[in-house]
Amino acid sequence: MFTRSRRNLAYWFALSMGGILVLFAGVSYYLSVEGQLQAFDQALYKKSKAIASGATIRLHRGQWQIEPEEAPWLGSDRLSRSSDLVYVRWYNAKGYLVRFIGLPAPIRLTAVPEFQTIAIAGSQGGEPSSQWLRQITLPLLQNQQLVGYLQVAEPLTPLRESLDRVRLYLALGVPVTLGIIGITGWFLGGIAMQPTRRAYDQLQRFTADASHELRAPLAAVLSNAQVGLMSPEDSAQQHLRLEKIVETAKSMSALISNLLFLSRREGALALESLKPVDLVALLRSLIHDQTAQATTQGLTFTSQLPEQAVTLNADPDLLKQAVTNLLSNAFKYTPSGGNVQLRLSTTSRHAIIQVEDNGIGIPAADLPHIFERFYRVDTARSRQTGGFGLGLAIAQQIITAHRGRITATSTVEKGSTFQIELPLKG
Ligand code: ADP
Fold first, then answer.
1. Which UniProt keywords apply (predicted)?
2. pTM of the model
3. Which of 67, 229, 246, 255, by CA, is between 20 and 30 Å from 84?
């Protein structure tokens, strides 16, 4: 499932990026053709202007006559080797050929005065081939009067070669870049899938753990009920079995409530469900409820609360539940004769609640995991005390929903301190 999603992500990434790349390559090629042709035309224009300015134009019997320059580089009937030109042609104002150098010329001027790309037939290595030329036809003016035309042509070979090179680079570069884009897409797809994968794994682990936790008590209920039905026992035995069933069903009910709590109360709390709460009063009532439990377990339970009220916006029932979970853990994991202390203090912006015990403590390796759902340091001991490994996960979820923070420090055999940090009412 994840591989398919990752492949899809990589595919769409490569497709969109590839599309942009091909478009970009096409536009670059077009701009390169435009730019090079413009430079080529400019050079050709300059050359033809130089030739035009070298010609002598004079009036002879009422007609303008053009006498081309007898420059050595032009030659008399052939273009010199150093010249790139294929032909130079002069026409009079009526469009009749006056003179040409290079390739033979038509008697009448056919082209309009502008740049043109034309193909001429030739042969290369005995094979017939065509050569592409760029031709310019320039009107010759004397005193603002048209006296003739100059036509010059140059092969497009260097331009074609340069464009062939650009095409080759693009033909090699585009597939290579597409390959890199594909690999990057696959890699990014992996990164993008990570949170989903983690959430999915967590959910799967949670479901497996929850089912596992429910299976054991359910089996106990079933076996007790089946044995009770099978053998005709005395009423005392029957009573014992029924008591066991009730006890197990209660524990299952508690587990289900915890699971429901965790699944329903995900995320931050809605502002309208919060109300101003005096933390001192809330903790005082909690101490009152819990003292009996501590005494039964032979523990000394003390508290340190400020005199004045500490107000914050909270859901009082949820806050009570979070602190109760910390206190009942402290009672559970502190042997008889130990001490448990509940403290409340404030900083400029936060209320700090601390639950400290001198109990069995938590090994350093387990400390980073204790807030995970179903995590228990000592499974046997925890189960014995009726724990599912959900108490701290619930406390953390409640505190996070109040935009607070819960942390723990502990030393094995010395004790643990759990700290809740909550933002004060602004
Ligand atoms: P449980 O219901 O098993 O107590 P919790 O989520 O409340 O589950 O706690 C997770 C684990 O953290 C417990 O199983 C226990 O091993 C450890 N733990 C929590 N609080 C204390 C504490 N005050 N002292 C020692 N160990 C603790």
1. ATP-binding, Kinase, Membrane, Nucleotide-binding, Phosphoprotein, Transferase, Transmembrane, Transmembrane helix, Two-component regulatory system
2. 0.60
3. 67
The radius of gyration computed from the CA coordinates of the chain, to the nearest angstrom, equals 47
Mean pLDDT rounded to a whole number for the chain: 86
Closest atom, ligand 1, to C-alpha of 392? 6
171 falls within a domain: no
Same domain, 310 and 410: yes
β-strand pairing of 145-155 with 115-124: unpaired
Helix (H) or strand (E) holding 26: helix 2-54
316 in a structural domain: yes
209 — phi, psi (to 5°)? -65, -45
- Determine the structural domain holding residue 254 and report its residue range: 187-262
* Ligand 1 contacts CB of residue 395 (under 6 A): no
* Per-residue pLDDT at 254 exceeds 60: yes
Query: Which residues lie closer than 8 Å to 113 by C-beta, 6 or more apart?
Result: 137, 138, 139, 149
77 with 137, same domain: the answer is yes
Which CATH number do you get for residue 93? Answer: 3.30.450
pLDDT for the residue numbered 71? 54
Q: Which of 113, 93, 117, 97 is nearest to 105 (CA)?
A: 97
> Cβ(319)–Cβ(282) under 8 Å?
yes
- Distance, in Å, from the CA atom of 167 to the CA atom of 170, rounded to the nearest integer, reads 5
Q: What is the mean pLDDT of residues 294-315?
A: 94
Distance 408 CA to ligand 1 centre (A): 11
Whether 416 is covered by a domain: the verdict is yes
Counted domains in the chain? 3
Cβ of residue 87 lying under 6 Å from some atom of ligand 1: no
DSSP 90-148: EEETTSBEEEEEES---SB--S-SSEEEEEEEEEETTEEEEEEEEEEEEEEEETTEEEE
Report pLDDT digits (tens) over 279-288: 999 999 999 9
Q: Do residues 140 and 218 share a domain?
A: no
User: How does pLDDT run across 141-160, given as a tens digit for each residue?
Assistant: 888 888 889 999 999 888 88
Residue 26 neighbours by CB distance under 10 Å? 12
For the Cβ of 299 lying below 6 angstroms from any atom of ligand 1, the answer is no
Q: Mark whether 251 and 387 lie in a shared domain.
A: no
Strands 97-102 and 339-346: unpaired
Do residues 343 and 395 share a domain? yes
φ, ψ of residue 105 in degrees (nearest 5): -120, 150
